[in-house]
Amino acid sequence: MKIHPFTFLYLFLAYWGHSSYYVAFLLFSILHEIGHYCMALFYRFEIESVVILPFGAFLSLEDFGLHAPYQEIIMLIMGPFVNLVLGLVFYILEINELFEINIFIFLFNLLPIYPLDGSKLFLLFLSYFVNYKKCFQIQIKLSLLTLSVLFVYTKQIGRKIVIGYLLYQTIVYLKQYSYIYVKTLLNDHLKKKRIKVNKKMNYYRPYHNLYELNGKLYDFETIKIYLLKSR
């Protein structure tokens, strides 16, 4: 686990200004990430790093996109689920401030903005119905649209900084998604029960893809090279 240098600065400022709210927010953000971390361990993801940033924590996985989609969905849901449970506990205990912090973290992380959980969940659910490469493009457009709306309606400077950081992450992702798509194609060797018969050069990640082309049926491994060329 790594701590970003600016996090120490924010903690010092919080201590100096007697801001227990920020400390509580950071603590529950870390617990959120621990929820992801525990499920990542359970499903044997390759964990690259856990970084504590000034406004939360971030779990980086080497092989996200290479596991079964249901495993990734459960792993992603577990973070917000932690905050939802904590929020309900503090609601019952009538500790309103801690209830509000956890519900805010829960809702914020479900926004369809990359790299938040909501954006990744949107990508995974969409992949059951839409060609996987097209899923990335829709995901990025929705992320940019949501960021634009938030930027217009957000007045606080601190929140605008967070929106700026998320915009930067989305732009980086825009430049990298083709590589991620190719990596997924090349490393898709999972056994899948559901079959998807394609009459076009599409790739539906959750399914075992078959291709009916020119009156003949081809398997995914045979067509894979043509999918890479047609990207």
UniProtKB/TrEMBL annotation:
Protein keywords: Hydrolase, Membrane, Metal-binding, Metalloprotease, Protease, Transmembrane, Transmembrane helix, Zinc
Cofactor(s) needed by this chain: Zn(2+)
Membrane topology qualifier: Multi-pass membrane protein
Transmembrane spans: 6-29, 41-61, 73-93, 98-116, 136-153
GO molecular function, one term: metallopeptidase activity
Top-level division of the source organism's lineage: Bacteria
Limits of the Peptidase M50 domain: 22-93
A Pfam family annotated for this UniProt entry: Peptidase_M50
Biological process annotations from GO: proteolysis
Gene Ontology annotations for the cellular component aspect, listed alphabetically: membrane
Subcellular locations according to the entry: Membrane
Family: Belongs to the peptidase M50B family.
PANTHER family: MEMBRANE-ASSOCIATED ZINC METALLOPROTEASE M50B, STAGE IV SPORULATION PROTEIN FB
Record protein name field: Site-2 protease family protein
Organism: Faecalibacillus faecis
